[in-house]
# Entry
Amino acid sequence: MSLARSHHRRLALATSSELPDLTDDDAPLINACIALGIAAEAVVWDASAIDWTSYAGIVIRSCWDYHLRPDAFLEWLDAVHGAGIPIWNPPALVRWNCDKRYLRDLAAHGIPVAPTEWVEPGASASLAAILRDRGWESGAVIKPAIAASAYGTRRIVGEAGHRDQRHLDALLANGAVLVQAFLPEIERDGEWSLMFLSGQYSHAVRKRPAAGDFLVQSAFGGSVTSETPAAPLIADAARALGAVPPMTRVAADDILYARVDGIDRQGRLLLIELECIEPQLFLTTDRGAAGRFAAGIAAALDRVPRRSPARAHRLEIGTRGIPAPQIDSL
# Structure
């Protein structure tokens, strides 16, 4: 990679209006990019009066509101891509990954995935019948197919009650739903997150829920520790990520970042999610992670042909004001 070639190239790190300066975890990426001659800056994805053509590329980072307005987010993605502006991860991968039914694709390719009942939009489904037929005595977890940060997620303990069924019905009114077996390993051992940068394993953390809870996110009291998983877990995570290119027709080199979440079940990784849109990458837990990420960005920019002046017309997109779907959480 030529430092001279990358000098003064502008890079947009796409974020949300709630996090206009990125998360604390993503912040080190800016200086890591600057060290490689890339002028990286946080830019709110749905802000008005942004000339996206002034950037050499866009990397999706803290867009933690995309699931509230997925159509608007995908329209923005298509617009910048259609204008010839490189964006990572690529739109084909983002579209596939924004609906959690991608897990069904991975399962069909032999990747061990958390046991899941896939319920299509508008279906009339009995939660009690699903738990009974599946034999899920430890309960289940309900989540929308398009969601992030535990949005709409609910745990069912024991038999499903009226409030649980109402929650499922409300979710189905807005889209597809996943009903997954509750994984007791999360309470006992925690959940692994393995980070991959430019297709290579980078680092990992173990996330644990607060006492009496099952959600591992810090917003719900969860904790994070930097740990190195056993080699078989890393290999299983790499195999899951390796199944993505043929399904999405996205080259492995173009998967700039990914996070593989799962549990250790008898020494092997049971996949919970494979996040390729805006995952927290826990850059602050590993000293070299931000630098590795920046190096991957520089290499990706170097692979992109320069846009001709004819294509570099100004592109401004404003998508605010589109309402988010409402979910009755009763």
Remarks:
- Residues 1-7, 321-330 have pLDDT under 50 and may be disordered.
- The chain has three domains: 3-89+298-303, 99-110+185-276, 116-182.
- The longest helix spans residues 289-303.
